[in-house]
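Hi C.,

You asked whether I'd gotten around to modeling the 313-residue construct. I have! Everything is below, sequence then structure, no commentary in between.
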Amino acid sequence: MELPSGRFRAAPCRFGHDRLRKTGLHFSAPCSKLPPIMALMPEPTPTLQQLLAFYLEAGVDCALGDEPINRLEEPEPVPAPAAARPMAAPSPLRPLPAAMPAVPRSEITVAPDAAIASAREAARTAPTLADLRALMETFDGCALKHTATKLVFADGNPEARVMFVGEAPGRDEDIEGLPFVGRSGKLLDRMIASIGLDRRSAYIANVIPWRPPGNRTPTPQETQVCLPFIQRQIELVNPDVLVTLGNPSTQALLGTREGIMRSRGKWLDYDTGTRTIRAIATFHPAYLLRSPSYKRLTWQDLRAIAKALQPAT
């Protein structure tokens, strides 16, 4: 509907003394103190680098498939079957049950209690580290297995006198299939080298052998499902000294509820069922990368570990 222009008057701009121009309906004239009208301009299309940076900040740093899946797309309509010629009615048969839709492996869930019991039974029956790894490769009770790329079992010397246990693999570990190979792994290598150790004289593993999506914190259920495997792994390696790296692995293996600040540097007993092992907690290398000021306390813990590994005289 066209409105007569003579019935409208320009209102003064509250930021100045300009009057609105008279052009049919009156619009506010530009004001020197108002910003440019940028909201009406379309935003530029983000570049590929900007999109990748956005996904990395959101925690998406790896692809789970080769082809993208549009989960909002409506299914294509099924064409109606062509009309068939009338045939004689067959004899009544028992109707077949409808086929169940296929469920992706990543959506198959196992009851928590059943998954934990299955993990305990599988771990108990593994006589060697190779058998334990084979059992974990076929274990389906932990959902993390279906989103991870590889099983991160262990690295180092299974005959070593000292074993280091972290929490869970990260992106680099998930790609390589080995624990502590990223930035935190390089720092761990320097830490143990400071007391005369390397991966040929130490054994390294994680409580969780599969990477959580986006490096999120494992849930208590996921930790409880994986716990029997790392416990059996420690029993089979049978080290003289067990070192837990960070608060999650310390609480899961040593049964303490204290934080890492209070539990680190203290010698505790770890019972495998057949032997008692000396255990000590220290900071996780990833934490030291964020808080380098705690490297001094970590050095004290490393010196205590080196002293415990010295042969008795």
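If it helps when you're writing up: Residues 33 and 265 are 63 Å apart (CA to CA).

Thanks,
B.
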